[in-house]
Specification:
The chain starts with a helix and ends with a strand. By secondary structure, it is an alpha+beta fold. The strands form two sheets. It has a four-stranded antiparallel sheet. The chain has a four-stranded antiparallel sheet with strand order 2-3-4-5, with no helix packed on it. The protein is elongated, with a radius of gyration of 37 Å. The protein is about 55% helix and about 20% strand. It has two domains: about 10-140; about 190-280. Helix 1 packs antiparallel against helix 2. The protein is built from four helices and eight strands, in the order ααααββββββββ. It has helices spanning about 5-40, 45-80, 90-160, 175-180, and strands at about 190-200, 205-210, 210-220, 225-230, 235-245, 250, 260-265, 270-280.
């Protein structure tokens, strides 16, 4: 064998070796991404980090799949080039070789389709679980904020309608006449309410929420606080470092009108919250 033929024979082996190393490197990267995702916290507060780790694992798996397909193709080419020329093989042996190569190709294709389908199914299940958790969390926070507002309102009404305690028995007729029982005022009826949900992005421009306009000036995700400006018919407020679920009271134009603005959640798509308007 001449040196040129020897180098020609070694070239497929070198290519196969490099593709095998590339496949091993891609698999190691996929394992590292999978371990990082398994050890991460899947709570709602760390959802963005968990989503990034999931995307990294999916990308690593796709790279590993491509490297494995390339390695199998190189092995197939090497086996095909190392065999006898098809022109010199009898017709019966040639058909047997073609059937073996066809079965191998179908096996590789079926394996690739199964792995891709399993990955897609896992991703869909993870996304559905995240959506369910977000919906449940938003519902619980809204119910908690409404219950807190109702408790504060009922406590204020009880303080107002609480009757005065009678003093000791008077010792003179004048004091008895002065302390003649007076009609007790009836408790106020429960105030009517209107609720407005909102989703706002940080911007210096105001957006209408019910009877007021709101502008989100800045967001501090680490401290779970925001800075905002509120513009109503009677007042303009500039508030700094408002925390989640902290009610912000807003006086309306009428004496009996008041509002409460509550920020529920800081998410990737914007600031979620609601405005409660008390009437009467």
């Amino acid at each position: 064998m001449t040196p040129s033929e020897d180098s020609y024979e070694m070239e497929p082996r070198r290519a196969g070796r490099s593709q095998w190393l590339a496949m091993q490197s891609a698999y190691a990267e996929y394992r590292r991404a999978s371990d990082a995702l398994a050890s991460s916290d899947q709570s709602t507060e760390d959802f963005s980090t968990w989503k990034n780790l999931e995307a990294q694992r999916r990308a690593a798996f796709e790279e590993y799949l491509e490297a494995r397909m390339a390695y199998l193709e190189s092995r197939f080419d090497e086996a095909n080039s190392a065999g006898t020329d098809l022109a010199e093989v009898p017709t019966r042996d040639r058909s047997t070789l073609a059937s073996r190569l066809g079965r191998r190709g179908l096996l590789v294709l079926a394996l690739a389709i199964g792995v891709v389908g399993l990955t897609a199914y896992s991703a869909i299940r993870a996304q559905k679980r995240v959506r369910d958790l977000e919906a449940s969390r938003d519902s619980l926070r809204a119910e908690l904020s409404t219950a807190r507002s109702d408790i504060q309102r009922v406590a204020a009404e009880m303080d107002v309608s609480k009757p005065a305690q009678p003093s000791a028995i008077p010792d003179t007729p004048q004091k008895a006449a002065a302390l003649k029982p007076q009609p007790v005022s009836q408790p106020r009826r429960a105030a009517l309410r209107r609720s407005y949900r909102f989703l706002l992005a940080p911007s210096r421009r105001f957006k209408r929420v019910g009877p007021i306009e709101v502008s989100i000036r800045s967001v501090d995700a680490k401290q779970n606080s925001i800075s905002l400006s509120i513009l109503s018919e009677s007042v303009r407020l500039n508030l700094q470092h408002v925390r989640l679920n902290q009610p912000v009271r807003i006086d309306g134009r009428d004496p009996g009108q008041r509002m409460e603005l509550i920020v529920d959640r800081i998410a990737s798509d914007g600031i979620h919250g609601h405005l409660i308007e008390f009437l009467g």
